[in-house]
């Protein structure tokens, strides 16, 4: 069994889960992966989305730090 078959078997065993399964890559997913994930509570997050999430996190932290500095100056 190759890695693709292993991944499909792992995903298939989680079909009855009520929680969302996240699969993350630094690259992108194939169209088959997107098709397979639809309707199975599997969210695919590609490399661009990872970077966007990371930048959003850094912006939120920067805003939090700026707010603390402003409050301490009052």
First-residue to last-residue Cα separation: 64 Å
Task: Categorize the overall geometry.
Answer: elongated
Proportion in β-strands: 5-15%
Strand order of the largest sheet: 1-2
Mean pLDDT: 80
Low-confidence stretches: none
Query: What is the radius of gyration?
Result: 19 Å
Describe the main β-sheet briefly.
Answer: 2 strands, parallel
Order of helices and strands: HEHEH
The secondary structure category is: mainly alpha
Strand tally, please?
Answer: 2
Estimate percent helicity.
55-70%
Provide a count of the helices: 3
How would you describe this structure to a colleague?
The chain has 74 residues and is mainly alpha-helical. It is built from 3 helices and 2 strands, in the order αβαβα. The chain has a two-stranded parallel sheet with strand order 1-2. Strand 1 (21-24), helix 2 and strand 2 form a beta-alpha-beta unit.
């Amino acid at each position: 069994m190759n890695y693709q078959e292993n991944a499909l078997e792992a995903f298939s065993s989680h079909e009855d889960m009520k929680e969302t399964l996240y699969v993350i890559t630094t690259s992108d997913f194939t169209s088959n992966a997107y098709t397979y994930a639809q309707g199975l509570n599997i969210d695919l997050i590609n490399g661009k989305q990872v970077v966007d999430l990371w930048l959003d996190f850094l912006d939120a932290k920067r805003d939090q730090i700026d707010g603390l500095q402003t409050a301490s100056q009052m």
